Amino acid sequence: MFEHGIKIGEKHTYDDWGLICTRIEISDPEQKTYFVEIPGRDGVIDLSEALVGDVKYGNREIRMEFIRRQDNRTLWHIRSSDISDYCHGQRRKLILDSDRSYYYEGRLKAETEKNFQGVDCFTISANVEPYKYERYSSLEPWVWDTFCFEDGIIRDYKDLEVNGTMTLLIPGRRKKVVPVMDCSAAMTLGYGGRTYYLPVGRSKIVDLQLGAGEHYLTFQGTGRVSVEYRGARL
Questions:
Q1: Which of 31, 36, 118, 227 has the most CB atoms within 10 Å of its CB?
Q2: Are 3 and 14 contacting, i.e. CB atoms less than 8 angstroms apart?
């Protein structure tokens, strides 16, 4: 596989389209801050975390530039349309060859330069969510080929047996995520000094928002539980 491409949806820019990536720009998401000026006092009041207890972010932009050699103008038109059909205006996942453990997701825009000079120039830009997400959730099988030994976390929270008491450690990422519990039998969950009731089947506890840090979830009962969690970071 070409090591400087991007997987867009189910297509790879080099393997499927022969595009050679020459430049990738990823902007930082803008902070959604709120400052209030108070007459007669120094500084300002920062209310950025007042409503939800955490700073929120706007979307970020990803701009990817490519070239592709093509002597046949007819093939140039076909390839250009293939890329536009698949990308332009579509919402897709993006996985960089240099960052295979995560994906971005957002709306794409495709542009081509129609100069017919023997080199096709393509630009694919994306308006994506501020966070990049772990490629595999805790219920999906992970593979070594995409695992990053620098910051990767192996998550396997499927069909965990509870026979009395079972404690699960979830290392959290920057984005606060509410995990989904799937229980084969009713049981209770202890977290942060509080106890929650878990019914049979899938359920969420809105108060259970796991962000950065280590989170210990203690299940009590008899049965099996699967915890669906996908971390995300900036």
A1: 227
A2: no
